[in-house]
Amino acid sequence: MNENDELRIKKLLQQALPPVEGDPEPGRDLWPAVLRRLDDRPSALPWFDWALVAGLVAFAAFFPASIPVFFYYL
Amino acid sequence: MNTHPYLRAYLAGVFLPTLVLPLLLAMFIVVRIVLKVPVPIEQAIIFPMAVVPSLFGLWNMLWLGSHPHTHLSIGMHGPILPLLMAPAGALVATCLHVLEFGSHGVTWFHAFQVPYTLIAPCFLAVLAGYYLVWKYIVGFLNRVLGIA
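Above: the input entities. Below: the structure tokens describing the complete assembly.
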């Protein structure tokens, strides 16, 4: 491939891909929106998990001897 | 960050038991020295110190390796572990005289009586606790370490 071929290919590519019209940059900074979206991930526990937590607390309250046994397995 | 995923899985698994162990030791010491309850710390601490953290780490490694095939969530994988650990822990505790079987129930650490009727609810509570621990704590650590 000589220099003429390279120039011809460059010209063809420039014709095939027209330049971007207007400002190629977005109108505003998108990074804060990305961070906000990451922070907005749902963190609420499902009702089933809340029920399990409540059941465990109630079980430990009514039967405190189970607490050291639970810790033995943790 | 795709290097050594199994090492990261092991570290994420051992995190919680390693964190709980000093608290457990402190609790036993308070019960024995302050409350003067003759709890055999030396025997009681062997299983939580030597077996539980390693099993947590290995179980998390197993989850990482098997997840592409089983598609089991971490919250469902965790509660399977007590099915192995409960008999193993009870066997170790019996051999070390930490767990004694009586006519109406078992006695843990020479101090805590558990009637036979409450063993099944206790086991269910352990399963529920493991479900929550693995889903929210180990799962969170797996995400932080980039393996989930």
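Note for the figure: Helices of chain A lie at 3-16, 31-39, 47-62, 66-72.
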